Amino acid sequence: MKTQAHISYQDNTMHVEKVSVAAMAKDIPTPFYCYSYTAIKENYLAYQQAFAEQDTLICYAVKANSNQAILSLLASLGAGADVVSEGEIRRALQAGVPANKIVFSGVAKTRKEIAYALSHNIFQFNVESEPELQLISELASAQNLTACISIRVNPNVCANTHAKITTGKSENKFGIPITKARSVYHFAASLPGIKVQGVDVHIGSQLTDLAPFEQAFNKVAEFVDTLEEDGHDISIIDIGGGLGIDYAEDDTPPNKDAYAKLAKKCLGHLNCKIVVEPGRSIVGNTGILVSSVVYVKKGEERQFLIIDAGMNDLIRPSMYDAYHQITPVIRNTNETALYDVVGPVCETGDTFSKNRELPVLQSDDLVAILSCGAYGSVMSSTYNTRLFAPEIMVKDEQYSVIRSRQSYQDVIEQDVIPPWW
Ligand SMILES: Cc1ncc(COP(=O)(O)O)c(C=O)c1O
Ligand SMILES: N[C@@H](CCCC[NH3+])C(=O)O
Hints:
The chain is an alpha/beta fold. The chain contains 12 helices and 21 strands.
């Protein structure tokens, strides 16, 4: 098994930093998420270091994991935020991210959300369509405000990642085709309440190879030259996020230094400030989902390891056939068996892995699903009236619950029977 930084075995028991996962599970019923403070901090600092030679603003993509503790840790290190909703703006501000480090992405920014962002004077709107541009102009000029914008261009580049998280192909809903964007910049420059400051691109998530970034960055560089010739003053290039992480033992995604060097090679001559929006590569490999075996069930062809975490807690395997390493929290045998690791939800898709060779396990044993720090907890639901898994943060030998488990009553009370029943 390939362990993650600050997640290791000590005396055959998995530890996050210096805390035994088995000890935590005595205190906090499974399933729960558990993150390493130090790993998050180191990943952020590695970005800072990688981009140190370039004028860069690192805007953490809040959607990857929006817990206030994580946002506040990143804010304390100087991070900005890439947000996609009013809710995420509120989360970022509340965690201490200054408005002048917030970039607002997303294809469906509503009137209310734009007004909210304008009222806080955020750093930049990443505009994804002409009607959005017009609405921002209308709302900003009505209040004598200026919205600083970049237009998200769609370069029609294949990101070589899962189709559901590819965003830079022409059939995707994101951005404005780069071939059409020149006229949209011309239009933007004519609008009241709009200051054109940059160009934005984001071609997808979990990219494991730098070549698609290179294609996209080169297209953007050429486009920025055209815009400058047209008289626009482009001072920002937002290169989005998307750098992949290792999920499987033999994955070798590019590192942050190589990625930063590539940005410099393709875009450095333009003397613009670089905005980068990493999500997964900051938090993905800093967290695990801890679960208990409920039953081991022998079928006709298969053996099912039924655990107490489900697709409602971690949807990535069901949604993208994503691979996550699964490993016992306590290593006490060399004997292995093949298991389909499944959850309790009443769907066949509630499967974490098929025919996975694991050490022999039995009821009540603890397992950890690795690489769950990004797009884990944030994508969870209460489907089957299961409670959201709590989140724990560990630093050194201390740990704290950073999102507590609701009660069933909290969940049920949200429903209202009409008074006219
Ligand atoms: C606009 C934008 N920026 C940044 C990100 C963060 O991506 P990742 O978590 O892959 O770094 C995303 C998600 O793919 C996104 O849609
Ligand atoms: N939810 C996706 C990533 C989406 C990125 C959002 N733009 C995942 O789990 O891999």
